[in-house]
Write a structure and sequence with these properties.
Strand order of the largest sheet: 2-3-1-4
Distance between the termini: 19 Å
Radius of gyration: 19 Å
Structural class: alpha+beta
Strand content: 15-25%
Shape: globular
Order of helices and strands: EHEEHEHH
Number of strands: 4
């Protein structure tokens, strides 16, 4: 079994950012997402949201891609809401940011306080952002013709003697 620590703050929105997530449906929706995550072996540290989006702080095993996990959670939860007679659709895209272990409590607090952040307008724009298109890091300024010495053949490799990842 591999050693891994892969934490993500994920956010996705309802179709067209429609404010359809009502307080009385949150327990079912969030509970369903947590159960679906468990089926996928994803650990959920926090879940919360607003009328038009959901935030989750999760650990995703490396055998699963973030996109596949989000796709399955969105599809299954949308289907479950439909079975309950609720017309419900998610947008196509999502936002995903990585977190280190030392940032988990900060991310958890931000997610736990979603309602007050929206009510008090104390949002962190980058943590609320999700789009339908892939808007990953820009390649601007990256020299693709130059191989960095750290990955070239003549580099001696890493010396990890005595180093700990924690």
């Amino acid at each position: 079994m591999p050693f891994w620590r892969a934490y993500y703050h994920i956010v996705w929105a309802t179709r067209n950012r429609e404010p359809i997530i009502r307080p009385e449906m949150e327990a079912r929706l969030y509970g369903y997402l947590v159960r679906k995550a468990a089926e996928l072996e994803v650990v959920v540290y926090a879940i919360n949201g607003w009328t038009d989006h959901v935030h989750m702080l999760v650990a995703i095993p490396p055998k699963h891609s973030v996109s596949e996990v989000v796709k399955r959670m969105k599809g299954a939860s949308s289907h479950d809401m439909g079975v309950q007679g609720i017309s419900f659709e998610w947008q196509r895209g999502y936002g995903a940011l990585t977190c280190g272990e030392s940032q988990l409590s900060i991310a958890r607090d931000y997610i736990d306080r979603q309602k007050s952040h929206h009510a008090e307008n104390t949002l962190q724009k980058a943590l609320e952002y999700c789009v339908e298109n892939d808007e990953g890091p820009t390649l601007k300024g990256m020299n693709i013709d130059h191989v960095p010495t750290i990955v070239s053949d003549d580099h001696g490799g890493y010396d990890v003697t005595g180093l700990s990842p924690f």
